């Protein structure tokens, strides 16, 4: 085998520093040769120290829809991601003047970025933030005509405490089974929908196919889309829950295919699952990761720092009660939390 030190030099820049300032190999970190003969240091042998600058550097390599932008910001010592959304007003009537041109600037929830977060997990946090932001939009695009009014029953702004305190208003023992009437009252992205097929698989499984008639939705994966989904019952309520789940899944599938880091769509169905498994084995198997005794000590210390640092501050009593409820006095990994449990 070639001298690993020479391959390590190929991973360094001209001034002999690691390729990214925010991630550094631990002492005695192993080099692993991949099936394509490239050499890498696996991420679990890197120590991370992210800053606002480094987070922005990572975000610059992410590609996605122009209407959704992942931003990094800092408040005090806390770095976080937030999605900016440029979107039509989902609650403005489509007949409103310039409704198709007017855009609102909105911001999603904050996603905390720990200093030692692996870069791969940082990228996946941005990925998840985009999925959640788009789901928010999808839920507001679903409208239901009821009693000469229009509601958005799946939006995220309903008063959950009020519903919890008055469950009899939202939980019903029986539901209507008139799917055709329901379909006539559904609007998605300011357009009607059409039930094109209903197949009874068995008493508890129904397969529906629905055609969306929108053709100018900003979330363009829905334009003239045909969606099929299974429900576990025949009621209109089962249909509604199955339909919104299918709509959200459609949005998630779009993100899976379109979200790219350095041009690579990690979650696309074009990525071979078995090949990912082989790559993981190559970078984690003791047969390929030849750690010396000093390297094992450094790796164990790194793992200890990461795992022990994740314990939430001030929650020792609550965690103690959580363990006691399961009949556990000390978890197997109690050594990670010497000042906690």
Walkthrough of the structure:
This protein is of the alpha+beta class and 341 residues long. Among the domains are: 108 residues, no CATH class; 30 residues, no CATH class. It contains nine helices and 16 strands. A six-stranded antiparallel sheet has the order 11-10-12-13-14-15. Strands 6, 7, 8 and 9 form a four-stranded antiparallel sheet that branches. A two-stranded antiparallel ribbon has the order 1-4. A hairpin with a 2-residue loop joins strand 12 and strand 13. The mean pLDDT is 91.
Short description:
32% of the residues lie in helices and 22% in strands. The chain is α+β, with helices and mostly antiparallel strands and 341 residues long.
Keywords:
341 residues; alpha+beta; six-stranded antiparallel β-sheet; four-stranded antiparallel β-sheet; 9 helices; 16 strands
- Total count of helical runs of at least 4 residues: 9
State the helical fraction. Answer: 25-40%
| Element pattern in H and E | HEEEEHEEEEEHEEHHEEEEHEHHH
Taking the alpha carbons of the first and last residues, their distance comes to 47 Å
Alpha-carbon Rg, integer: 25 Å
Largest sheet: 6 strands, antiparallel
Number of DSSP strand runs: 16
As a percent range, the share of strand residues is 15-25%
Strand arrangement in the largest pleated sheet = 11-10-12-13-14-15
* Form type: globular
Please give the structural blueprint.
Elements: H1 4-10, E1 23-25, E2 32-33, E3 39-40, E4 46-48, H2 52-59, E5 62-63, E6 68-75, E7 78-87, E8 104-107, E9 111-113, H3 119-141, E10 142-146, E11 149-151, H4 160-165, H5 179-184, E12 186-188, E13 191-202, E14 205-212, E15 226-231, H6 236-258, E16 260-261, H7 273-284, H8 293-308, H9 316-324
Antiparallel strand pairs: 1-4, 2-3, 5-16, 6-7, 7-8, 7-9, 10-11, 10-12, 12-13, 13-14, 14-15
Helix pairs in contact: 3-6
